[in-house]
Amino acid sequence: MTKMRRLGIAPVFALGLGVAGSCILPEDPLEAGDGGSATIADAAVADASGNGDAGSSEFFYSSCSEAEFPTDLRDSIEAKLADYPFVPGAVVAIYHPSQGYIVASYGLAHVANKTPMPVDGIFDIGSVHKMFKWIVMEKLFESGDFEYTDLISTHLASPAIAGATIYDLTAHATGMVDIGNNFIEDILDKNASGGLPHEYSYEEMMGFLVTDSREGATNGMVNSFAVSNGYNYSSYGPVVAGEIAEALTEKSSSQLVRELVLDPLGLTSSSIIGVDAFPQRVQGYGDQAATDAYGPLPDSIMASVSSGNEGALFSTACDLLNFSRAISDSEIEFLAPLTIESRTQEVYDIPTYLKIGRGMTNYYGWGTGEFWAHAGDGMSSHSSMMGYNPSNGVRAVVLTNLSPRFIDQEHGIHHDIVAIANAYYE
Question: What is the structure's pLDDT at 30?
Fold first, then answer.
């Protein structure tokens, strides 16, 4: 049983960066015109043979095949995917209290080889990994390791932000800029020879922050920004939070994700670079990093980047759906009820766009309906969205093997599929 304690004001929202791609099959270039004719095939629906009980004995775990995917829902999603003919393939997993777990795959895992997308395909989840990192912070907070009112300087010498608290850090209220071109260019340079990714130290990451010279900022800090009274999204936030977690526990941030989240929840199909073996993944398409060419991600940047203390998390739709339920369902007793409630308390409301909460964002302004979630892409050839609607009980995961750069609206297909699932269960 999770230990209950007073919950401070701690909005958390973070987006990360990953360079990803996968090659479980030979990398044949995608021929011009193939995208429209070889994309959305008949949905491959998981059969109902799963036991629904795998994983940890202490917590629940479902194999995501408890019920047949409703034909009308599956067909609605497939029809929507037809509006995005350039998306090679997708996996969609949904949980609803009245339906249970369902999962379906659409399209192709490898275009040239006409390989159907498997329902258990492994994806680089990009920034969705930050949800795991912030849940680590929630677990440490519930254990009494820190207070959200602590000054960042109580735990770390860098970054030097006068008066900024851990609360400000998690609310993107410190004034730190987002990760910029100086870091991205270094990623491409260090990964030009292929192989496993360069692992950036915390000091290296803070070096990229303070040397950021973009317009409107000085030494990585937004000019004229009032700490605690403003909002400026920064991917450096989870890097700093991870360093605080390491200082508190004397364990790596990646180890903490495994010990406090993955292992207790039985998420055995998820792996972290730097802790686990590099996994085989579905082929990713769209080179967001180097050119506008549409094709398999080049070998030179095939590996996902490990940024500072973050590592890179790879997972399946089923593992992510179980995680989404664990952090939103008090009956599972993974998080305290007050923690769960506080995570969807609105901190910032950006009209017609986003409501910023704690570790996630309500994407109401992007057509999903109420959906507290996190999306992931970065420089990846995979893109993802995971979250839940506390009003109707829908939890949903959408994974695709195409960079969002090639979608008209960033994460448009993810938003559209979530909207279908939300409307289906209203």
Answer: 31
